[in-house]
UniProtKB/TrEMBL annotation:
It comes from the Eukaryota. Gene3D superfamilies: DnaJ domain. This is J domain-containing protein. Residues 636-655 are annotated as: Disordered. InterPro entries: DnaJ_C16_autophagy_reg, DnaJ_domain, DnaJ_domain_CS, J_dom_sf. Transmembrane segments: none annotated. It holds the Pfam family DnaJ. Residues 646-655 have a biased composition (Basic and acidic residues).
Length: 655
């Protein structure tokens, strides 16, 4: 018994593999290949419609006699198979892709007519599908039109559908909404299964070679930007609702940021206070609580360096709160919150995409814009760039108010905004030259003068470069005490037109003249600091004198290397790539179901049984060989010991 138990233990692995292969072949594999509707009619798979009708007529001819009447369940199966396989669209979908979306009807009718005669069953069992697209037209792909889709780099969302699918007909109302929401953001198109070659290229393939759509039809397939092959497409596997599809496409495929909703309690603390002081706050008031559209999310991503976006659900009981805060009287509305103390810009009513984009472009800057790494070129306050007036402008000016964030800086920012507002009004008036200094008004009107402010604490090196003095620490860098002294200065930029055409010497530098040839900014810079009072008239007079001197006097042409402005914001999460962000529209249950479905696909592979059997045979042979080799040395040692004993006995007899 002990030797038998040891043998069973030694061969446990091959026995287990052999049992598993038998179980797979006899139990698992047959369930993976259930009887088809062709088997119900007793004909071979993929038979023609005429052969299906002949088989049905042959079976129905037996039902005239009492003995030939089938059971209710058998009749329902036969009738269902006949109706399915005689409809050209249903038969095509079933034969090629295994689509049988009305199979649940058999169970339903069986429950309704259990134990009854087949004469009480209403025929036909299945209803033909009708598509009513109304006046809507869709971009429908064909084999000839599909390839040119990839000529552009924009992403695409493709709906794969069948004219014979009732689910597809019901989904088209949602598809109309999805198409409208993706307008201007991505391309959309539809593909009918009749375009067989294209449909097969977008379908998945089982290990058996069968093409299928995992969740049936309709099926949504996305091509991210730059994707030009089926290997990089993304399939939607969530709930087929407009909100879920749009959120999945915008988040996972386009890599767009989500815009959160805030309440009256959390808006100030979690949004306004945490958004950077350099950003304009864009607040949407919505009555429905719907997500931000992909176009709004695309705009939020494009203007991320300038703006922060938030949504608020409008409630009538909160009217007084929003009216006192932003003068919002109803929803929908969009509010642009700019500088502290500046009246917000409020737009009531619905706006289309182009109008919304114009609003954001117009209001992306604060009234007194902040000088930052993202805005220096656009504002014309960078020695590496050009004036706002154009590349042909030789000299231009930038008035910079530097200081740490606080009451003192806010006070001077308000003064600079008032000066800027006065010049804006006067530049449109024909009497401007009489009311304001001519040089100042002319430079501002000609876009050669820009007003901006600088965060001296965040931009310590840049601030100290222009305000290099014994007291610059009161303005630049982190606070050392309670003293904050904002400083105002003006920078004159000037380019030498003749030097712009000089070619750069690309020869390698020698070790002893590396520092002599250090790169410098192309425009020269001269800085004038203001040390007067806070009177607007005095400041404007000072600026006018600086501009007049800069335009008329032959001042030194001095160039240097300006320290780079430090970026205020870290890299946003969506810039890491669309595939790194997973859409929450696909829940945990759905993900588990998808993983189980993929495992189930491989269980239907008929190669698994033979592989398990081969593994059992190989492990059996290996174990037998090892055991036989360990047995032979033992027998040989026993034989040698017996021979030695006989030899010793022989010697003792001779003695």
């Amino acid at each position: 018994m002990s030797s038998m138990a040891s043998k069973i233990k030694a061969y446990s692995v091959p026995l287990f593999l052999f049992s598993l292969s038998v179980f797979y072949q006899l139990v698992v594999l047959p369930r993976s290949f259930p009887a088809s509707h062709y088997d119900v009619l007793g004909i071979k798979r993929y038979s023609s419609v005429e052969e299906v009708k002949e088989a049905y007529d042959k079976l129905s001819s037996k039902w005239n006699s009492e003995a030939g009447i089938p059971a209710t369940s058998d009749f329902i199966k036969i009738q269902y198979a006949y109706e399915l396989l005689t409809n050209p669209l249903w038969k095509r979908d079933y034969d090629i892709f295994g689509i049988d979306e009305q199979a649940h009807i058999m169970d339903k009718i069986n429950l309704q007519h259990a134990g009854e005669s087949i004469s009480g069953i209403d025929l036909p069992l299945l209803e033909a599908t009708t598509f009513d697209l109304g006046f809507h037209t869709f971009n429908e792909f064909t084999s000839q039109e599909f390839a040119p889709m990839f000529d552009s780099s924009k992403p695409w969302l493709v709906l794969v559908y069948s004219l014979g699918s009732k689910k597809c007909a019901q989904f088209f109302s949602s598809w109309i909404d999805i198409t409208g929401l993706l307008d201007g953001v991505a391309g959309v198109g539809i593909l009918e299964l009749g375009e067989l070659q294209l449909a097969i290229s977008l379908a998945e393939r089982k290990p058996t070679g069968k093409f299928f759509f995992r969740n049936g039809l309709p099926s949504l397939v996305a091509f991210p930007s730059g994707c030009k092959a089926s290997a990089c497409l993304v399939r939607f596997e969530g709930d087929l609702s407009t909100d879920a599809v749009i959120d999945w496409f915008a988040t996972k495929v386009l890599g767009l940021p989500r815009i959160l909703y805030y309440s009256k309690e959390s808006l100030g603390q979690n949004f306004l206070a945490k958004s950077g002081p350099h950003k304009v706050k864009v607040i949407f008031f919505s009555k429905t609580g719907a997500r931000a559209t992909p176009f709004v999310r695309q705009t939020a991503k494009s203007y991320w360096a300038y703006t922060s976006f938030a949504f608020v659900l409008w409630r009538e009981e909160d009217f007084s709160v929003w009216w006192n805060a932003f003068e919002v009287e109803s929803a929908p509305a969009i509010v642009f919150v700019k500088d502290s103390g500046v009246k917000p810009v409020v737009v009531h009513g619905m706006v289309n995409n182009s109008e919304f984009l114009d609003l954001v472009e117009k209001n992306k800057q604060q009234e007194l814009p902040q000088l930052r790494s993202a805005t220096s070129m656009e504002l014309g306050c960078d020695a590496r760039g050009h004036s706002r007036a154009g590349n042909d402008t030789i000299s231009w000016y930038c008035v910079i108010l530097a200081g740490r964030l606080g009451p003192e800086l806010n006070k001077l920012r308000e003064i600079m905004r008032r000066i800027q507002e006065r010049l804006s009004i006067d530049s449109e008036s024909s009497e401007a030259d009489k009311e304001q200094p001519l040089a100042l008004t002319g430079a501002f009107k000609g876009k050669r003068l820009t007003f901006t402010w600088l965060d001296g604490e965040a931009q310590e090196k840049y601030c100290s470069y222009y305000l290099h003095s014994e007291t610059s620490y009161d303005t630049c860098g982190p606070r050392r005490d309670l003293i904050d002294v904002p400083k105002l200065f003006i920078v004159r930029y000037k380019r030498n037109a003749s030097e712009d055409d000089i070619k750069v010497d690309t020869k390698p530098k020698k070790i002893f003249n590396v520092f002599e040839d250090e790169d410098v900014d192309p425009a020269s810079q001269l800085v004038a600091r203001y040390n007067g009072s806070d009177e607007i008239s005095q400041i404007m007079l000072w600026m006018s004198e600086i501009i007049r001197d800069g335009d008329t006097r032959n001042l030194p042409f001095y160039r240097s290397k300006t320290p780079a402005l430090v970026p205020e914001d870290s890299e946003p999460i969506w810039s890491r790539g669309a595939q790194s962000i997973f859409s929450k529209s696909i829940g945990i249950k759905q993900r588990i179901y998808n993983n189980i479905s993929r495992i189930y696909d491989y269980l239907g592979d008929p190669r698994i049984g033979p592989i398990l059997l081969l593994g059992a045979l190989m492990s059996f042979g290996t174990i037998w060989l090892i055991r036989s080799q360990s047995t032979h040395p033992t027998q040989a040692s026993q034989l040698s010991q017996s021979n030695a004993k006989v030899s010793d006995d022989t010697k003792s007899v001779c003695m």
